[in-house]
Specification:
Structural class: mainly alpha
Shape: rod-shaped
Order of helices and strands: HHHHH
Strand content: under 5%
Radius of gyration: 31 Å
Number of helices: 5
């Protein structure tokens, strides 16, 4: 794999996104998020059926639980965006011809540089 700036940047975005996603290992907000979503859904269904009071109560409680989980949702969304764009950068970066790979010329006895030719010429003159 050829490593260039886009590939390295994509890798760093992926690593940072994963660390944000798993940062702290605290997934306790998933339970209130699921309960809040279910309560909001139940409240909307009850409100649509004509049970306005219980629909508003369930919907309000569900909405409050979802709003309290908003920082968790933003963090998860940010992590997903970073991983997506990092992966995209890595895939696009490996296709470019502009690479920073190190490919030295092999050293052999038959290999001569300009310096070698000039040195040989200098020694012949002496």
């Amino acid at each position: 794999m050829n490593i260039n700036v886009k590939t390295a940047g994509g890798f760093l975005l992926i690593v940072f996104g994963i660390s944000v996603f798993f940062g702290g290992g605290n997934f306790a907000f998933i339970i209130p998020l699921a309960i809040g979503g279910l309560l909001l859904y139940a409240g909307i269904k009850r409100f649509a059926k004509g049970k306005t009071v219980t629909g508003i109560i369930f919907g309000g409680i569900g909405a409050m639980m979802l709003v309290s989980s908003l920082p968790f949702l933003v963090g998860i969304a940010l992590a997903a965006v970073m991983v997506y764009f990092g992966w995209k950068m890595m895939k696009n970066g490996s296709d470019e011809s502009r690479t920073a790979s190190f490919d030295p010329e092999p050293a052999s006895a038959a290999y001569e540089s300009n310096f070698d030719a000039e040195w040989e010429e200098f020694l012949k003159k002496k």
